[in-house]
Amino acid sequence: MYKNKKVNQRFSCFPKSLRFCKKGISTVVATVLIILITVAAVTIIWSAVVPMIRENLEGGSACLDAVSQISIVGTQGYTCVTSDGTVGVIKVQIKRGAKGFNLADIQMIVTTAEGDTHSSYLLDDEDDLWGENTLEDLPGQNEEKVFTSGEIEEFDGAERISIAPLVGSGASKNPCEISSSFDLIPCEEETTT
Fold it and tell me: Is 14 inside any structural domain?
């Protein structure tokens, strides 16, 4: 009878209305509920965070490729500056390697003897400092191209040029770090015979 009394006490509020039952849920059930709520919360947060991380990683790897593949060619004499005391003209030869990536533009950073820097873009430049270039004018894979600036007052006394690629990701252009720099030399005068 003692055994039956314990069983009856355990389920004493079960057959009756649950409104008057003063017993709580067991610790095992409470622990299982907490674990389920935690797993559900982690799943919801993870589904929002993973796409954002994946997009940033893809953009970062594209910049790594671009920085390693875009450089200034200075050894052949095509990268140089002509200054006359009032304006300067810069020629820069840019080389692209064999690795494929979506090159959207190139940022040109010119440093003068006074330490001033002037930043412009080959394509999206309102002042057309580098001419009216299009996406097709950018170097293709395993290609080198020479770009010549206009006669620009800010380029007088230019000493150094640096380039930084911009990679395309959908409709946006992501700027990368400087990939190459070169101390400018005076351009040789072209002689015609």
Answer: no
Is residue 47 a part of any domain in this protein?
Answer: yes
Residue 132 identity (one-letter amino acid): E
Number of domains in the chain: 1
The CATH number of the domain holding residue 29 is 2.60.40.10
Q: For residue 20, is it within any domain?
A: no
**3-state SS string over the chain?**
CHHHHHHHHHCCCCCCCHHHCCCCCCHHHHHHHHHHHHHHHHHHHHHHHHHHHHHHHHHHHHHHHHHHHEEEECCCCCCEEEECCCCEEEEEEEEECCCCCCEEEEEEEEEECCCCEEEEECCCCCCCCCCCCCHHHCCCCCEEEEEECCCEHHHCCEEEEEEEEEEEECCEEEECCCCEEEECCECCCCCCC
Cβ-contact 145, 137 below 8 angstroms: yes
CA distance 44 to 144: 49
pTM above 0.70, yes or no: no
Overall average pLDDT of the 107-132 stretch: 86
Alpha carbons 123 and 108: distance in angstroms, whole number = 10
Residue 87, domain extent: 25-193
pLDDT tens column, 16-53: 555 555 566 788 888 999 999 999 999 998 888 887 77
